Amino acid sequence: VEEETSPGSERPQGSGDSPCPPDMEKQNSDPGLPEGETAPSPGQPSTSTLCYEAESPDEAALVYAARAYQCTLRSRTPEQVVVDFAALGSLTFQLLHILPFDSVRKRMSVVVRHPLSNQVVVYTKGADSVIMELLSVASPDGASLEKQQMIIREKTQKHLDDYARRGLRTLCIAKKVMSDAEYAEWLRNHFLAETSIDHREELLLESAMRLENKLTLLGATGIEDRLQEGVPESIEALQKAGIKIWMLTGDKQETAVNIAYACKLLEAGDKLFILNTQSKDACERLMSTILKELQEKNPLKELQEKNPASPEPPSPREGLPRLPATQDSRLRAGLVITGKALEFALQESLQRQFLELTACCQAVVCCRATPLQKSEVVKLVRNHLRVMTLAIGDGANDVSMIQVADIGIGISGQEGMQAVMASDFAIAQFKHLGKLLLVHGHWCYTRLSNMILYFFYKNVAYVNLLFWYQFFCGFSGTSMTDYWVLILFNLLFTSAPPVIYGVLEKDVSAETLLQLPELYKSGQKSEAYLPLTFWITLLDAFYQSLVCFFVPYYTYQGSDIDIFAFGNPLNTAALFIIILHLVIESKSLTWIHMLVIAGSLSSYFFFALVFGALCVTCNPPSNPYWIMQEHMLDPVFYLVCVLTTCIALLPRFTYRVLQGSLFPSPVRRAQHLDRLTPEERTEALKKWRRAGMLGRAPSQCADHSAAKSEERATSGLSAPLAMMSAPSCAVEQGSFSVHETPLDSDFCETKTSGMVGTSEG
User: Which positions make up the signal peptide (predicted)?
Assistant: First the structure.
């Protein structure tokens, strides 16, 4: 199958299996259509068992639809195509040349020799906006035929508009008859372009454009891509989580808007602004008009007039507007921008104005966007706004966007594996993105933040024991602990518990995180790793090191113990303090945690006993010989270790208790839900939402937000669409449409248009 050329939308170059669908409803069709389709590999002898393999499910849908019209593709080789017609029987078309699809031309063509007329025929399919411009203005066969073509063109355009309003992906089909001399001349020039060393791509483009002109319109197609299961729910959850969603697609404007409504990216009450201009000046004026209207209705404006001292939104880098964390106001707004207008908006002089406009909108739909424009949009937001960008797509046209984003996600399926191979993460369906971000993203952020803080704490607390000892040894660098113990303390005795914590820590259950996507905002706000949290942790480490050093020091003051005998209770108490500190910070202790903690403590005492007995480093007058054995027979040693540990951890324990009971955060409240029964949990969630415990923040430009029952949040870019090709057909007045009919579940093919998401933090 050649490249699928839905309007401005590029399809991947891969292979996929398309199982046989059941018989489809038959309707009238133009017999020239299947000839223009470059499609599947040879099938089985019987039509009832004939199956196709296609690079794109859309290609397979068209071929299956043609078969429903009794126009069956029988076989396909590099040299010829065999098609069975109801009235003409089996015809073999000689395949002369193929011009593959590319995002610049937005079309593809095939050159064949017709078996009946022996004429060279060029069949072209592509975006309607492109094909319509390539149609012949005048007909050599007379005015009557020219008038007929104009009628067909007008009707086809009406059908295209109707298909687009219904959310179908539209294509136009056209043809051109060439003489043998014309084709030979073109083929000679095309061969020179193919063999050229310099400027080969430009020459090939010019050669294709010389062939694809003065076309005769045959009709149009419409293919329905159904949303995957769970797509609207996933997008709604992501918006509640504080992720602003943009849709970047190659579909035409009407189709893109229809799909945006279907997946709940846009809602019925949204005020929609369409930016569709053909010049830079018009684009700038229209953006200024829209932005002015949105800013005039900004509810924050009235509040700031009443309270001039109210803080302004944080200023982003390079003076560009930061995407607001949430939008909760009287009116929601959506922006639809076409590929031509997007080309102007991405120019440096309009970038600031474009970003200010998008910051005022709940959702943005970029239609007719090329792969290059998709990547430029992601790069623009990533470089000029204080946000993290996530791009997700399933086709080769999404690869550049996925690679430019901070996080790239590829959806596997019959669209090929290019997006998956270029991505950081691969998922099977779009609905899994919710769990990837809301659950694993939240867990990962919490684990990393707490682990960073813990490693700072652990090293500061232990190293400061040596620092305090320097005041009593004249800063000579002497250590009160054997060097082997110093080396193994981080390497062996305290290494396993943090690793288990970083792997298994779950502050909130996955079920609760999915039910309360707003909890994801805690990561966007960096609540787990704030500067204040960092300095409190360091102060706590200094305090614990003071207690760990001076309690044993004053306990053994005036005794006759040597240096290593003094250092042994310090190391033991430090080990207990550091490990129990991690226990206090853990939210989900399991038997694995307990086993690892017990193993760490056992390894320390085992090493100390064996090391003291063997006396590996016995250097008089002070050596570690038999120190642990003597201390384990001394009750004072146990008293010192217990008292030191309790005094050192008391502030941390008290802080966590007060924080969880008197000043609980939304995450802390959600932890209590995990302890409830299912019935209590359901009731608690209802009360939680009614009380608005998750909190709301005003938007930066709130004409576009609605005071609806559910919080809608924005903080980035994304374009979520997941669909399935559904090859059933209907033809009206020379226009060909593919609609949904009941198919076997195995035949349904998931598809996702490119998208990009951004999130603060």
Answer: none
